[in-house]
Amino acid sequence: MSVLKIENLSIQFGGLKAVDQVNIDIQRGELVGLIGPNGAGKTTIFNMLTGVYVPTDGHIFLKGEKITGKKPNEIVMLGSSRTFQNIRLFKNMTVLDNIKIAYHNHMTYHYFDTIFKTSKYSKEEQEANAYAQSLLKVFDLDKFASEKAKNLPYGAQRKLEIARALATKPEILLLDEPAAGMNPTETEGLMATIKKVKKDFDISVLLIEHDMKLVMGICERIYVVDYGKVIATGSPNEIKRNPDVIKAYLGE
Amino acid sequence: MKSLKQILNTINTYVKKFFAIMKKPLSMVIFVVSIFIILLILIESNAFSRYFTTLIILILVMIVMSTSLNIATGFLGQLHLGHAAFMGIGAYTASLIALALEDSITNPLLLFILSTIVAMIVAGIASLLVGTPALRLRGDYLGIMTLGFGEIVKTMITNLKDITNGAQGLYGIPRIMDFPIAYWTTVLVVLVIYLFMNSRHGRAIISIKEDEIASESVGINITKYKLLGFVLASMFAAVGGAMFAFRIGFLAPVNFNFLKSVEIFVIVILGGMGSLSGSIVASIVLVSLPEILRSLEDYRFLLYSTLLIVMMLFRPQGLLGHKE
């Protein structure tokens, strides 16, 4: 069953067709890469998937449900979650609170419960704390739990962002250049983390990345976009040998 | 200079210790009740003059105003420059209700509660109407819009002569606000804000200040929570307005002008954005200072701005920072 299906997706900014008739299909449990030269339209595709931009043409289906035109927070609630190219954490909040905010929609207590501190409030808050702690443990971040997010080392901030995205309990995780600004050792750690996340949480992953070592190393399937169009798709080995891809990256 | 630093450091350690003790609910209750008893004894035994009692209640009003503005400015992170307008809406609504019901309800507490609840609802609806379009704007633009709204409210109060008695002011309002009612109302407001900010709803509001886009991308309905923070702030501002009206017994549009909004805003900044205890301390200091330095009159705005500059340079996180 396909978790994410994109049909003839297009968006036009004035006279510029940034994304043109893109079709992408991601199956349950797949790890898919989206690559392309700078300005190819990768992040624009991401922004349409997450509801930031409304496509001018085409449809997006999440688990069979049409999400085109829905707001970002509604799409998150349907089971798709993302990270950002330039890390966007809640910097002045604790690491634990960062996770708990993402857990917001899985708590049900109402305003009334907060003011009277009902048993429902305490129960759900305790649950949220326990859940956040266990999630942090998976990423080896539990030692930072009461630290402010901005005080974390860069690699840990990247991991925290992925952890936060997972706290919404998504079925597909969209990672926008997770390895940006990382050194080779950190990137290797990240590759292990992504694989682990995919396996432990049983989710699909779509990632944009420029680091070819990472993409070729962990992706099962790759889509290559250039000038807003998908120019190739296939396994890493097929992509490496595809003449169109080589042309897009290196010129003729 | 060195000794000043030492003094500041000592104060700092004591503040830290104080908050460590206050973490326990029981010690907080004891603290709040004992302050109440001490002040009540001083007032009842006539050790404090009537003027001084009014000053204490004005401080309490300012605590309500600054902690409520802290929701919109400190926690939600929006530049809100029309808080006094909602105070005005609350004050006038509560007064008009009280004037109408004065003869049928003799219990002052009941009269206060009833009229305040109506005032809160009216202010809430007003803020919903303003907030819906206004919160689409960001930063300075929202500031200008709320500022404009404040002026509109003031002008409306001045011109609705049949209802509000215009620029001459509304008088004869029952003076039912004594110290115990004011004190416990304030405690209740601060407590509700504190509890609210420590819930999932409060966290959602704080996350919007931290990063709107990230907040949206983890499933927070930012439109809803922005509006909620704004409406909540305005509803509590109405409580402050009602307290003010029932103490002074006289309302004029100038009480709720732009300068009042700025005064509240300054207190929030001085106390620290997102720090309720800071707002309380700053309210006490900034309401009593002009009374102590009575001869300075309008120069107190000079004092405010100087204080602000000094604070921004030496303690940008506010008086008490984020120790609470």
What is the overall number of helices of chain B? 14
**What is the oligomeric state here?**
heterodimer
Please bin the fraction of helical residues of chain B.
over 70%
Biggest sheet statistics of chain A: 6 strands, mixed
The major pleated sheet of chain B works out as: 2 strands, antiparallel
Mean pLDDT of chain B: 89
The gross shape of chain B turns out to be: globular
Summarize the structure.
The complex is a heterodimer of chains A (252) and B (324). Chain A has 252 residues and is an alpha/beta fold.
Question: Which characteristics define this entry?
Answer:
heterodimer; A: four-stranded antiparallel beta sheet; 10 strands; B: 324 residues; two-stranded antiparallel sheet; 14 helices; 2 strands
Kindly describe this structure.
The complex is a heterodimer of chains A (252) and B (324). Chain A is an alpha/beta fold and 252 residues long. Chain A has helices at 42-49, 72-78, 95-102, 111-116, 119-138, 154-167, 184-201, 212-218, 236-241, 243-250, and strands at residues 2-13, 16-27, 31-35, 57-62, 65-66, 80-82, 172-176, 204-208, 221-226, 229-234. Chain A has a six-stranded mixed sheet, with helices on both faces. In chain A, strands 2-1-4-5 form a four-stranded antiparallel sheet, covered by helices on one side. In chain A, a hairpin with a 2-residue loop joins strand 1 and strand 2 (16-27). In chain A, helix 3 (95-102) crosses helix 5 and helix 3 packs parallel to helix 6. Chain B is mainly α and 324 residues long. In chain B, helix 3 (50-75) crosses helix 12 (258-271), helix 4 runs parallel beside helix 6 and helix 4 packs across helix 11 (222-248). The longest helix of chain B has 27 residues, at 108-134. The A-B interface holds A 50, 52, 71-73, 76-77, 81-82, 84, 88-93, 97, 100-102, 104-105, 107, 109, 111, 113-115, 117, 121, 124-125, 128, 164-165, 167-168 and B 192, 195-196, 198-204, 206-207, 210-211, 213-222.
